[in-house]
């Protein structure tokens, strides 16, 4: 059960960089030195093994974080400072693409299942429909309609603490899926309120399952 509270109006807020550094401290020279400006062999090796990432983008009105995944190596390395990501079918809101067109600044964090360290890439992104680039990220001979080019400005490995604290890869702590409502149930509750019937939920879940199964790439 979640306990709700109203945030007091007089809470202390950190408003300046000087105050932030006073409480948070400065990064050591060793930590700063780990930030690279192009891909080295270790970063390339990580990307070749990574099947999943979170893509963060923003525009003048807000920000968005979007999961992206495919077989390991789906991020193609064009050169030491440029990578290419396929744009597979999603919900068609196109939040990430809309943001990139408005503001190219972006960040990614890449994961390898079972590994607590992650790889972070920051830079600028461009949306392309160039057939030569799309062919590089084709699936079973069929190219996506769009892809994202990332011009790398920073790349570095992130330590394991967050994933260690979360026990993200510990199967003994995985939640039984039945303990949480299905996506169909969630969506119908959000759209219709409490007046939702089981047959409606089952029908929507079946449609969502079919879409996820049959429209992974096209």
From the structure above, extract its key features.
218 residues; alpha+beta; Pnp Oxidase, Chain A; 8 helices; globular
CATH topology of the largest domain: Pnp Oxidase, Chain A
Structural class designation:
alpha+beta
Q: In the CATH hierarchy, what is the class of the largest domain?
A: Mainly Beta
**Sequence stretches where pLDDT stays below 50 over 5 or more residues:** none
**Kindly, what is the distance between the CA atoms of the first and last residues, rounded to a whole number of angstroms?**
40 Å
Order of helix and strand elements from N to C terminus:
HHHEEEEHEEHEHHH
Q: Indicate the mean pLDDT.
A: 93
Count of distinct strands: 7
Work out the count of structural domains.
2
Number of helices: 8
CATH 2nd-level architecture of the largest domain: Roll
Strand order of the largest sheet: 2-1-5-6-7-4-3
Largest sheet: 7 strands, antiparallel
Radius of gyration: 21 Å
User: β content, as a range?
Assistant: 25-35%
């Amino acid at each position: 059960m979640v306990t709700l509270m109203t945030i007091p109006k007089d809470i202390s807020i950190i408003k300046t960089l000087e105050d932030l550094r006073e409480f948070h401290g400065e990064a050591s020279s060793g930590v700063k030195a780990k930030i690279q400006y192009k891909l080295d062999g270790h970063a390339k090796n990580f990307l070749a093994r990574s099947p999943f990432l979170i893509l963060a983008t923003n525009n003048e009105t807000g920000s968005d974080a979007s999961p992206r995944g495919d077989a390991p190596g789906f991020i193609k390395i064009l050169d030491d400072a440029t990578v290419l990501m396929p744009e597979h079918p999603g919900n068609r809101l196109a939040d990430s693409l809309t943001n990139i067109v408005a503001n190219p600044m972006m960040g990614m964090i890449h994961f390898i299942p079972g590994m607590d360290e992650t790889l972070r890439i920051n830079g600028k992104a461009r949306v392309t429909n160039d057939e030569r680039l799309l062919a590089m990220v084709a699936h079973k001979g069929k190219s996506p309609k769009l892809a994202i080019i990332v011009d790398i400005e920073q790349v570095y490995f992130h330590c394991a603490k967050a994933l260690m604290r979360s026990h993200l890869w510990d199967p003994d702590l995985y939640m039984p899926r039945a303990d949480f409502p299905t996506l169909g149930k969630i969506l119908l509750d959000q759209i219709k309120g409490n007046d939702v019937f089981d047959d409606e939920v089952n029908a929507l879940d079946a449609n969502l399952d079919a879409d996820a199964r049959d429209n992974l790439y096209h």
